[in-house]
Design a protein that fits this description.
Layout lengths: L4 E6 L3 H22 L7 H6 L10 H16 L7 E2 L2 E2 L2 H18 L4 E6 L2 E6 L8 E5 L7 E6 L5 E8 L8 E2 L4 E2 L4 E8 L2 H14 L1 H10 L4 E6 L4 E3 L9
Antiparallel strand pairs: 1-4, 2-3, 4-5, 5-8, 6-7, 8-11, 9-10, 11-12, 12-13
Length: 245
């Protein structure tokens, strides 16, 4: 997927947890084989060319496309699984696959799991007694600094996803034009229980811009967000303060 994944796993029976970790890593490699738009032999590339039907693909392909269609509906089209008229679900695959990997390891008996896929993080359980997971959000204006620290205190699951231009430059597309999104934002960080959705919502809100994006994020249940504009203005949803720490 063109990025680095890292795992922080706590507790559980070592043999069972290690086996689950190995299965999770293998699963991520399989996701790349199936969904990569850069591989001509991937199922997504072959599906887009009409060489495969959806029924001939792995069941996960239909699952991801259904999730993508739901994200498109809930974002009024600001999130899309197509790019320049071609099937491209990469905007949802990374968050979905990282969340799936985390849940696999937790199911094996781990008491705490953190999976970081290119800076987007799924947190499950706790790292230790009376210790919540904490995630630093990079400051897009001041490299090396933090814009905020998100705490998962009191939450069994929490995800943090950021979309912006600091790491990868201009790469987010306005689905209505097919061109790079013209946005006053440099970064949107979304905090929600599931990384699958947090990743989608961050991308969609960035494309919308700060005013519409903030208004839309405020309307979503169990979602908080931090938006930073090119003018170094910070905007956030009303409940974000409860997640800072």
């Amino acid at each position: 997927m063109g990025t680095v994944f890292s795992f922080d796993v706590r507790g559980g029976e070592p043999g069972a947890v290690r086996a689950a970790l190995e299965e999770a890593v293998a699963g991520l490699h399989r996701v790349d084989e199936v969904f990569s738009t850069y591989r001509d032999d991937s199922q997504i590339s072959r599906l887009a060319r009409g060489e495969l039907t959806l029924g001939e693909c792995d069941p996960e392909v239909a699952e991801v496309l259904e999730l993508g269609a739901e994200a498109e509906r809930l974002s009024d089209g600001w999130f899309s699984t197509t790019y320049q008229g071609r099937l491209d679900p990469t905007g949802i695959v990374k968050g979905w696959s990282a969340e799936r990997a985390a849940r696999l390891i937790l199911a094996a008996g781990a008491t705490g799991v953190s999976v970081n896929g290119g800076g987007d993080v799924q947190l499950l359980g706790v790292p230790g007694p009376q210790r919540p997971w904490r995630v630093g959000v990079s400051d897009p204006i001041r490299p090396g600094g933090l814009a905020a620290v998100i705490s998962a205190a009191g939450m069994d699951e929490l995800a943090v996803a950021t979309s912006g231009t600091a790491e990868r430059g201009t790469h987010i597309v306005d689905p209505s034009t097919g061109r790079s999104a013209i946005s006053d934002l440099v970064a949107v960080t979304v905090v929600a229980p599931q990384l699958t959705w947090a990743d989608c919502w961050a991308t969609a809100a960035f494309a919308m811009g700060s005013r519409q994006g903030l208004r839309w994020l405020e309307s979503l249940p169990d979602v908080e967000a931090l938006l930073i504009t090119a003018g170094d203005e910070v905007r956030c949803t009303g409940g974000l303060a409860s997640r800072l720490g």
